[in-house]
Amino acid sequence: MTLKIYKLMKNLNEKVVLVTGASKGLGASIAKCVANNGARVALNYLKDHSKAAQVVSEIEKKGGMVKSYAYDITEETAVIKMVEGIERDFGEIDVIVNNATGPQHMIKLENQIWDDYLGQLDFFVKAPLLLLKANLDKMKQRRAGRIINIGSEVVELGSKEFGHYVAAKGAMLALTRSWATELGPFGITCNLVAPGWIPVERHLGTSEEDYNLYKANLPLGHQGSPDDIGQVVAFLASESSKFITGQKIAVNGGKTFL
Fold this sequence. Notes:
Pfam families: adh_short_C2. 48% of the residues lie in helices and 15% in strands. It is α/β, with parallel strands linked by helices. The chain has one domain (2-196, 223-251): Rossmann fold, CATH 3.40.50. A 7-stranded parallel sheet has the order 3-2-1-4-5-6-7, sandwiched between helices.
């Protein structure tokens, strides 16, 4: 076990990892995990300065290297400015973790409008595209790079009243596979991590009944933690995953098998 941990840390050492939407929730845990494995972390967020500062502080207390960047990644000019800032501070980006998300409201189908779908596509298709294009030439020149998209099990579950979100996450899976095919010859991999329901801050107030109902259908019998997602992302960011691309990795305790 010690040898494996050392190998992973060596592989992430000095890599510049951009994690979007990392001031809280899964993004914060992903940022902490890759930092613990030796990466230089560019922590992106939009509005919550205090929570972003808290994550930065926690990483720095453990000796990690991190800087925060408050930019709207759905806007092209903001993405370009952010990438320029990261390159000044850390150097060229090696790994992009597309985690950022917007509101995830349940909406009955008869009340859904096209803008509900566009709002989700902004985060799960537009933002990843903008970030890739801002880094693609340099990744191609280095013949190296990692794109890690954070998807969801809802693509397989087809959750009701959630078509806008499910469709956008499905599109993210599709672009993962297309990008993997196109970018593979340049040494750039693209994979997707599909979490199950991992309790984070936004789930505060959820009833015990709802938790129990979800857990009852899990082969492992319990929900995962944000760190479970972070560890898989750290692996995909490392050299240990160099022959894995175009894949969806479900991290959901066996809820789905796809």
